[in-house]
Design goal:
This protein is an all-alpha fold. It has a single domain (3-203, 216-425), classed as Up-down Bundle (Growth Hormone, Chain: A). The protein contains 18 helices and no strands. The protein has helices at 3-13, 19-38, 44-51, 57-89, 91-111, 115-128, 131-141, 148-173, 180-199, 214-217, 219-227, 232-246, 248-261, 265-316, 320-330, 336-346, 353-383, 394-425.
């Protein structure tokens, strides 16, 4: 039996009692991270109007897009860097520094009275937004291969709950002014830092520690390094396609529902809350049974199938009430994401889990750079007065086609990776 298999069996059969506390703190970290992102959404227009005297809402929206893209660009550039750092120096130090600096990021946003300080704040926030990737690597370190998908699902559930709670809390606190949510986010991040410092163990041992290398720390070098593992290059392509396709919700949902159904901002918020709750339930409660029943490979296929069905149906939906009732079914598609992450994780060596999660974070950032621009352009093309065909749901149809391409690649390559991983998973 190999050393890796022995370690996996030990993790599976005799986990320390502190693991439940570790998972709780890691899930809380991811949840607060996503809350910190969502908590500022309701007050972003008011904040930008405050720092841009005399600007119109349309002009403020342009700056809002710049701030969002800048955040994603920094995530893309620095995700592998921090992941590679954590492979040598440990998950906990990187996580602690990220959480500490994140408190400073929110403080900058509280006191910023010029758009340039807001840009500086977003630069800092994007660089330190590696908590999700580092937390995922930490969970991968302490999980047997057969448990990874379910635990990644729990992380996804934490992210979903943060997505639900963030905008709601931000809207309530926004009644006291556009900077109040940033004060709350800074407090939550400080509390998270304290809990992580007191409770989280260090999971990088000498056996899996890997020396920091600059060629692995930049996004392209990191992707090349991870792609050297058999079959992972194609799986990274599948993950990127999935991330771009599913980013359509964040990119066009407010515009689509306002155009197609005439929904108010409050109604749009309600729909996002329903989706967030369903997202959390699916990833928190259904991933593990699905993996146990179908295996990781078929769970990915099932998830992609539900996602494509949901996107196609949304593209032709004309009744808002029916759409609300359909959201729980559409949310079933997210069941495939943790299974895909698990396939990537078990196909990577133990000393490269940090860089892998950094690459995944960079790919997610790329999707949030590409999707908002491309999907809003598709929406505009099919809804403007001169459009040859009026089709507000066109971005969802395009996303379904992208997923079909991703599923085709996965079906051809995914089974091989699973077979290669079997000797290590026992």
């Amino acid at each position: 039996m190999s050393d890796m298999t022995k370690d996996a069996d030990m993790r599976s059969s005799s986990e320390p009692k502190t693991f439940n506390w570790t998972m709780m703190v890691v899930i809380l970290t991811v949840m607060i991270d996503s809350m910190g992102i969502g908590i500022v959404i309701p007050v972003t227009p008011a904040l930008l109007m405050d720092v841009l005297p005399g600007a119109t809402l349309a002009e403020a929206a342009i700056w809002g897009g710049i701030l969002t893209s800048l955040f994603s660009v920094m995530q893309f550039l620095f995700g592998p860097f921090l992941g590679t750092l954590s492979d040598q120096f440990g998950r906990k130090p990187v996580l602690m520094v990220s959480l500490f600096v994140m408190v400073g990021y929110y403080a900058v946003m509280v006191f910023a009275h010029t758009v340039w300080l807001l840009l500086l704040g977003r630069l800092i926030g994007g660089i330190t937004a590696a908590t999700h990737a580092t937390a995922t690597a930490l969970v991968a370190d302490v999980s047997a291969p057969k448990d990874k998908a379910a635990r990644f699902g729990l992380l996804g559930a934490g992210f979903g709950m943060g997505f639900v709670l963030g905008p709601v809390l931000g809207g309530m606190l926004g009644e006291w002014g556009p900077r109040a949510p940033f004060v709350a986010a800074a407090f939550l991040s400080a509390l998270n830092f304290l809990m992580a410092w007191l409770i989280l163990p260090e999971t990088v041992t000498d056996r899996i520690r890997r020396r920091f290398e600059w060629r692995r720390a930049n996004p392209l070098g990191a992707i090349r390094a991870i792609s050297q593992f058999p079959g992972l290059g194609s799986m990274l392509v599948v993950y990127l396609i999935y991330a771009i396709a599913t980013a359509v919700y964040a990119a066009v949902w407010p515009f689509f529902t306002a155009e197609r159904f005439g929904w108010s901002p409050a109604m749009i918020g309600v729909s996002l809350t329903i989706y967030g709750v369903c997202f959390a339930i699916v990833q928190g409660a259904l991933v593990k049974p699905a993996i146990k029943r179908f295996g990781e490979y078929r769970t990915v296929v099932i998830g992609f199938g539900f996602e494509m069905f949901g996107l196609l149906l949304m593209s032709v939906m004309t009744n808002g009430t029916i759409l609300l009732g359909f959201i729980p079914i559409a949310a079933l598609g997210v069941i495939g994401q943790p299974a895909l992450q698990a396939i990537l994780s078990v196909g990577t060596s133990d000393d490269s889990q940090g860089i892998l999660q950094g690459v995944v974070a960079s790919l997610s950032a790329i999707s949030m750079i590409i999707a908002p621009v491309s999907m809003t352009w598709v929406f505009s093309t099919f809804t403007e007065e001169s459009a040859a065909i009026y089709y507000p749901g066109a971005p969802f149809a395009v996303s379904a086609l992208l997923l079909a391409l991703g599923l085709y690649i996965f079906v051809r390559k995914g089974r091989d990776i699973q077979k290669q991983a079997e000797p290590r998973t026992g």
